[in-house]
Automatic annotation (TrEMBL):
Pfam families cross-referenced by the UniProt entry: ORMDL
Subcellular location field: Membrane
Claim: Transmembrane is one of the keywords in the record: yes
Record membrane topology: Multi-pass membrane protein
Listed PANTHER family: ORMDL PROTEINS
The UniProt record lists the keyword Transmembrane helix: yes
Key words, A-Z: Membrane, Transmembrane, Transmembrane helix
Superkingdom: Eukaryota
Name under which the protein is recorded: Orm1 type endoplasmic reticulum protein
InterPro entries in UniProt: ORMDL
GO cellular component terms listed in the entry, alphabetical order: endoplasmic reticulum membrane
Main location: membrane
Amino acid sequence: MPSTCLPPSSQTYDAGAKPASSRFLDMTDRSAGGRRRRSSSILQVYHEPPETLEQMSDQAILYDVIPGSSQEASWTLTNMTYMVGSYIMFHYVRGIPFDFNGGAFDNLNMWEQIDNGAQYTPTKKFLLSVPIVLFLLSTHYTHYDSTYFVINFLATLAVVIPKLPFSHRMRFSFFSEVPEEE
């Protein structure tokens, strides 16, 4: 029984027909005399075809389900959601959920507890690179709009700066009291 999801096993092509992609890069255009036309440059201008509905739906992310939201707004919301969640999880909450250590880590946040506080471990490098990559993706998909760029950049700074070694065990917060020193 043939599958409806897979293409047929044999396909036929017209040998004289041009491939679909050749309409954008056609250097074999022959004029009178059967000679190839001359190019004034070794570089060619490639005109990207407009995105199809299928391509646009493939690029959709969670916030695209909100009615009336643009691609730029949904990428910025995705970036902001990750940054806020990451900041709360790694830098705002202190202590550990288990009580077997006798309170040794009560004044440390999760970032300071990873790899016993050692800097530049593979785990910390990966966790530092995730917000940077997400910032670059959101900047690209917001088409480098200056408003979205500033919002995404400030959100990224708010998460990346606490991860840097100079801010290890340094506290700066508007919403919580100063931790008690023992």
